[in-house]
Specification:
heterodimer; A: 516 residues; alpha+beta; D-Maltodextrin-Binding Protein, domain 2; Dipeptide-binding Protein, domain 1; Dipeptide-binding Protein, domain 3; seven-stranded mixed sheet; 20% strand; globular; B: 300 residues; mainly alpha; MetI-like fold; 13 helices; 71% helix; elongated; MetI-like_sf (chain B); OppC_N (chain B); ABC transporter permease (chain B); membrane (chain B); BP-dependent_transpt_permease (chain B)
């Protein structure tokens, strides 16, 4: 059959209309389809004693590793807890009591009588094994640096353990360590064994786990705190797309959305309870191993060109607080005076840039599609005003992380965890280490920084601590490689029937007192 | 009985007839005019745009107003200026990707179709290899390996378009390589490269031109998609895909923000689509289009 030009034009118009309708339908239907896409297919919604939370976070079970935010407080008990209000008053948890030696060189910890999910009792031997693992740089992961002040751990009896320190250690440092130290069965405390199954004594037990689909937690009837947790069951559903997660929340498919971006806050505020967690910090890192950032004056110049207020307003949607280096406002070392004396000042930045005499061009690596790109665009525009050209090179996340850890990025915007009440813990992150593993300085970590961290970790008396923290602040601002931008509280949107969901000082979810 | 000689009609007469048929298609003419306007906007963007597209001087997320006709984005940049400059990214990607795709695919298809035998087998297996990977995935892999940037983006999209050009050219070449005017050229002593370039290529250009437009249209969408994913045009250079990505975060605060780059993308793709359709009509004389006839081996 042949088609005449007229018929052909008609068909073309029909095709045009059809294309238009298809395009409109696709645009309108995309959010709906994406909402369906990541769902497990089961309808959610809270029943008495059960909630369903959605998240885009990846996870694994080993509490010594990262990516444990959503469940670590459910599966594991720590030696102590801190209140969720951002203060640091120690609350007995796995440890019933603790007593510091008068010379601050040791602490004796008495464990609470408790059982693991396996039914085995919690013993001092488990703590000794846990400390040994944390002291091993290859197996200790995130606990390695915070454990570095401990010389040895000894089981005094079944429920009493004694920690000996390398030198007198301040109580806040020891308490922060106790807060971060999970109780794990000695037999199960290896990376291989914890890869697939938790081995803790926390308020919830593992009921079911389908990777990237769902995680079901059931109440632990043997939890030490009688009557808690309040919930019988918690189900996490894993979403690959945050918009799909929020759509699932709005459709009632889940009772809460965990760790969502600030951009959703305004839209969800009226219909859901928004909970802000303690969060982390956003920092601008400059790599002193790669020119032009081997030039300290140039680093100082760029540090003065970071407009924190604009980032707060235009990137964070007004959520969070400005910071000048890797200390949260709740840290005893946080000195707000630095926000004025070393805050945003393009004239000062231009003058320092002139003095530095360094190159005026650099490339910033960043994960594509994250708010860090917008933060860098603000910095980029301000630097352009003073004659410094910052190129932004967005990368796929895996490629970015590889380059970051291999110290191949000239500069970047990255997150840094809370150092709680021990400013010496600032040296935890890879860019902040005092050893040659530091990805910003390599083998040339400024000796004054190493000394300041050591002094902060050894300051016992309040006046010593004050002086040590001031010195640490001075060197961090002087060396200017880790420039604080803002805090980044985590954000949860919950059905209004859900209450009591909090995050701890490290921003890990705690569901022990959650009700629905 | 005498047989009509197997020679193509004189080129000027054929071109004139094709042009007439193209002009008779109003939607094709509208598409061409639209594309010309877009090209002019892109070319003269610095003169036309009311503001520097990277200047963060305005209040963030302003709605359309006298000062900013289409409002401002989250960093206080003028949306209209960014749209005008963003046309450059889209059109450069479109033209560049089509050129890369044709630049590699057409010679490959010509060689495969004309020389046949092992050359054809090797060329088509190469094409099969490229076809085995979805275009967007191939572009993503190339961008991840080479890194983001305008040139790499063009390469990534263009390489994904090579198979279509190669196959189309091969089939068209196969259809005419044994015709009398090609054999006559050989008989008069023309070398193989000379025959391919001077005799065969001009007679298979029609479907290739249509494919150029189709590829350009696809490239606009892929460029926007990759930039939407943060792997295309790097900031602060404006791109419609990047603007859509930014606007996604502010739909609640500024619903109109995402509308404008979306409309620009739809308009550009429609223009290219209409031009492509017009070209099909023009070269096919109103019957089943040449591209379809060729790609299906004449079985329509």
């Amino acid at each position: 059959m042949t088609i005449s030009p007229i018929q052909s034009r008609l068909i073309a118009r029909r095709t045009l209309l059809r294309t238009g309708f298809l395009a409109a339908g696709a645009i309108a239907g995309a959010p709906l389809l994406s909402a369906c896409g990541s769902d497990s297919g089961e309808s959610g919604g809270g029943t008495a004693g059960k909630i369903t939370l959605g998240t885009t976070k990846i996870m694994q079970f080993d509490p010594y590793l990262t990516n444990t935010d959503i469940h670590i407080h459910s599966f594991y008990t720590y030696l102590i807890d801190y209140p969720s209000d951002g203060t640091y008053k120690a609350i007995p948890a796995g440890a019933e009591k603790w007593e510091f030696a008068s010379d601050h060189k040791s602490v004796v910890i008495t464990l609470r009588e408790a059982k693991y999910h396996s039914g085995a009792p919690v013993t001092a031997g488990d703590v000794v094994t846990g400390v040994k693992r944390a002291q091993d740089p290859d197996a200790g992961f995130t606990l390695a640096q915070p454990t570095s002040f401990i010389a040895s751990a000894t089981a005094v009896d079944d429920r009493t353990v004694r920690l000996n320190f390398k030198q007198p250690a301040p109580e806040p440092l020891v308490l922060d360590w106790m807060f971060a130290f999970p109780l794990v069965t000695a037999a199960g405390n290896t990376p291989a064994k914890l890869e697939h199954e938790p081995a803790g004594s926390g308020p919830f037990r593992l009921a079911e786990f389908q990777r990237n689909q769902r995680l079901v937690l059931k109440k632990n009837p043997d939890f030490y705190d009688a009557g808690k947790p309040f919930l019988d069951e918690v189900e996490y559903r894993f979403f690959t797309d945050e918009d799909a997660l929020v759509a699932a929340l709005e459709s009632g498919s889940v009772d809460g959305a965990a760790y969502i971006a600030f951009r959703h806050a305004d839209r969800l505020r009226d219909r859901f309870s928004l909970v802000e967690g303690n969060g982390r910090m956003s920092l601008f890192f400059m790599n002193a191993l790669i020119p032009p950032f081997d030039n300290k004056l140039l680093r100082q110049a760029l540090a003065r060109a970071i407009d924190r207020e604009r980032v707060l307003k235009q990137v964070n949607f007004g959520i969070g607080d400005p910071v000048y280096t890797a200390f949260m406002p709740s840290s005893p070392a946080f000195d707000p005076a630095y926000l004025d004396s070393h805050g945003f000042d393009l004239d000062a930045a231009a003058a320092l840039l002139e003095q530095s005499g360094g190159a005026r061009k650099a490339v910033a690596g960043v994960t594509s599609g994250t708010p860090a790109v917008s933060t860098l665009e603000i910095i980029q525009a301000d630097l352009k005003k003073i004659g410094f050209e910052l190129e932004i090179a967005p990368q796929e996340e895996a490629a970015y992380l590889e380059a970051l850890f291999a110290s191949k990025l000239q500069c970047t915007v990255a997150a840094q965890p809370n150092n709680m009440q021990s400013p010496s813990l600032v040296a935890r992150g890879r860019q902040m280490l005092t050893t040659e593993a530091n990805t910003t300085f390599g083998g040339k970590v400024p000796p004054a920084y190493v000394d300041a961290v050591d002094a902060a970790a050894a300051a016992i008396k309040p006046e010593e601590q004050k002086a040590a923290y001031a010195a640490l602040n001075r060197i961090l601002v002087e060396e200017a490689w880790a420039i604080g931008i803002t805090t980044m509280p985590s954000l949860f949107a919950l059905d209004k029937r859900v209450s009591g969901l909090v995050t701890d000082a490290r921003d890990f979810v705690n569901l022990t007192e959650t009700k629905a | 009985m005498t047989t009509a000689p197997d020679v193509p009609a004189p080129a000027p007469r054929r071109r004139l007839a094709s042009l007439r048929r193209f002009i008779r298609s109003r939607s094709a003419v509208a598409g061409a005019v639209g594309l010309l306007v877009l090209a002019a906007l892109a070319l003269f963007a610095p003169l036309i745009a009311p503001f520097d597209p990277a200047a963060q001087d305005g209040e963030p997320l302003l709605g359309p107003s006298g000062a900013h006709l289409l409002g401002t984005d989250q960093l206080g940049r003028d949306i209209l200026s960014r749209l005008i400059h963003g046309a450059r990214a889209s059109l450069i990607a479109a033209a560049g990707a089509a050129a890369v795709g044709a630049g590699i695919g057409v010679p490959l298809g010509l060689l495969a179709g004309y020389l046949g035998r092992w050359v054809d087998a090797v060329a088509m297996r190469l094409v099969d290899l490229l076809l085995a990977v979805p275009g967007i995935l191939l572009a993503l892999v190339i961008i991840v390996v080479l890194g983001p940037g305008r040139l790499n983006l063009i390469l990534a999209i263009g390489i994904g378009a090579v198979p279509e050009f190669a196959r189309l050219t091969r089939v068209a070449t196969l259809g005419i390589r044994d015709r009398d005017f090609v054999l006559a050229a050989r008989g008069m002593g023309a070398s193989t490269p000379d025959t391919m370039v001077r005799t065969v290529l001009p007679n298979v250009l029609a479907p290739i031109v249509i494919q150029l437009v189709v590829t350009a249209s696809m490239a606009v969408v892929v460029e926007a998609g990759l930039t939407f994913l943060g792997l295309g045009t790097p900031p602060p250079a404006p791109s419609w895909g990047g603007m859509l990505q930014d606007a996604r975060s502010y739909l609640y605060q500024s619903p109109s923000y995402g509308l404008f780059p979306g409309l620009c993308l739809v308009a550009t793709v429609l223009c290219l689509d209409r031009i492509g359709r017009g070209l099909q009509l023009a070269v096919s004389g109103g019957g089943p289009n040449v591209a379809t006839r060729i790609t299906t081996g004449g079985a329509v």
